[in-house]
Amino acid sequence: MLEASDAPALSPALRWRARVGSSVLPLAIAAFAWLAFSLGARPLSLPDEGRYVGVAWEMLRSGNWIVPTENGLPFFHKPPLFYWLTAGAMRVFGPSLWTARFAPLVGASLGAAALYLLTRRWIGERHACAVLAVLLLQPFFFGAAQFANLDMLVAGCIAASIAAAAHAVLLMREQRSAQAAIFGAWLAAALGVLAKGLIGVVLPMLVVLAWLLATGQWRTLRRLCSPLGLAVFALVAAPWFLAMQGRFPEFAHYFFVVQHLQRFAAGGFNNVEPWWYFVVAVPLLTLPWSAWLLRPSWVARGSESEATTLLRRLMWLWLVVVAVFFSIPQSKPVGYIMPLLFPVAALAADAVAGRLRGGSPRATQAAIGSAALAALLCLALVFGLAANYHHDDTALARTLKELRGPEDPVVFVGDYFFDLPFHARLSAPVRVVGDWHDPDIARHDSWRHELADAASFAPALGSALLVDADQGLAVACGAPPLWALAKDGASRPIAAFAGATRIATSNEVTLWRFGPRDCGPSDGVALR
What is the mean pLDDT of the chain? Predict the structure, then answer.
């Protein structure tokens, strides 16, 4: 039997893994609990959260896990990873606000873990904990981790891909095997593509390429693009796109040209802002930590390691590349810049560590004050929205769920109420009454444009579900009672319809009930 002194020495990598395994779990639990504890504190925001959660709900209730649908119609604005994660969480734990927001929580956790592990491996545990604390205490990051759209999910994949690629490069500098890290980088990029499209691989490639060129490491690019790594990427990312193209011949043009190239290069989409918008928005959205970036932390400090210097340069280039990339298109939704939150956290923590290294009491007070203020802002953001958001349809959905028979049809008049199918647990698409011949539909980024585009992939079903306003409430004819929802501005023609009963009103939306009746061709009420 070997004595302790005779036991074979562990390699540095194995010693590091043992230390990580013994201390990461409590930290991971605490970080996850901080991000997750208020997931159900507020209703779904409209339209974004209602839209994406609604698509996931349709995936779950229809059993079709391949083709995402919005109101039963193929919805190809985005790939399916968000819907898979959300529908999967609903299937395992049941439909709820918590499971509705599971996907952004996964994205935030993935990105945070990747940044922490990269920093811990190459700089040190204390520094990694500081980076993680700053990231988790960014109010924008905290709120985005609980907002059910695709931005945080793809941001987390992008961060994981960049971190894995950087880890691979640093391993190669030490003449060590980097194959697992390269696989991880390409796997994360593939998941990013399945989360939101080409941006999931384009941004990591641009950031890593800029870093390699700026630091004279461009020769490692060939090794990063290894055939096995590319094979991992293709095997994960490609099958869904190939399946959709085989089933819908217009899919590739719509997804890649319309939803990618035109959104990037053309106007007509939402949130049009000037080129300098993110230059102003990013510092404001990352307060109070962005104030620490005023310190020139890019200057090498004493005897720090080469890896520390290289990673600091990576973070600055990561910030600049992403900011410039998203400043080019006219459309600038604020969620686009979520990949910046990771380098901002790393650089702010770097600046805090630099200030604290001098032992200044004032610096310590400033760091504690920033953390306390950031934590208060995080809580104020979530619970302030919970107390003051009054645009959701939760109350009407609850009433509809209680009173509606399982076979009663539902009609939306003049609008699409994104969150109602999920909250009311509707098991089938609804008919949507509107002016579907309006030429302005194709000119504006709106719910009508979404549904009209979706109907182009299933014309017969689209004709049945998208009812022109001229037909009006002739759809109320039939045996079962019919339920209609309309904003107050569209309710006057409904009130004039024989048999219409106002059931409830909430947030300027009214729920109507029509009793069973037989109708002739002239009994409809036009809803223009």
Answer: 87
